[in-house]
Design brief:
The protein is mainly alpha-helical. The chain has 6 helices and 4 strands, in the order αααααββββα. Keywords: Membrane, Transmembrane, Transmembrane helix.
Amino acid sequence: MSVIRQPGVLGRTTRRRLVGVSVALAAATVETLAIGLWFVLLVGSPSTATALAGLGILFCGSLLRTAIFGFAANELNQLLRPWRLGAALALTAGWIVWLFVAEAIGGTAGLVAGTVILAGVLTGQFLLERRVFRFRSPDGLEVAPLLSATLLAAGGAALLASVWVVDLTVVSPPVAVDTTTFVIRIETIQIGALAFGLFAFVAHQRRFQRLLSS
């Protein structure tokens, strides 16, 4: 029977899609802000204070993103259980390992190695997150977490490449408004952050849509 004749089914499908897009957008926004701020603090001239501040921002972002996953799982309560807190810690550690490996190796090789390792770590973190929030794959396949992790790792590579590989600044002509003159300045790292945000949204939209359909 056509779903057109089953408004209840169509309504549930539409709601799932809306919820999937909403939580994916929230997760991507949180992750982009947290990773972006942490990254900017570390790639400049890091001190002990900025390193600690960056670590705090990264962990808070990871914890909030895990909370968004818990909201989608209808299990936001008891978020601070050890295993669920461990999912946020695993996410934080994944990004730290990514940047450490990339900087330790350096150059294009470091960029590639860090991206591959990050994709593997994020796949494990996604699987851990699903397990502790009691999500089950409907067909037993675990391909979706790998695809989402690869997309998110590609976003991380774009962010890192915007600092290491591409050096570009676009400055608009001066614009006068009354007695004030200003210019619009776009730097490569801003483009890299935007690319990361887009990759993060697509990655989370894929995983949330699949999980909510299970």
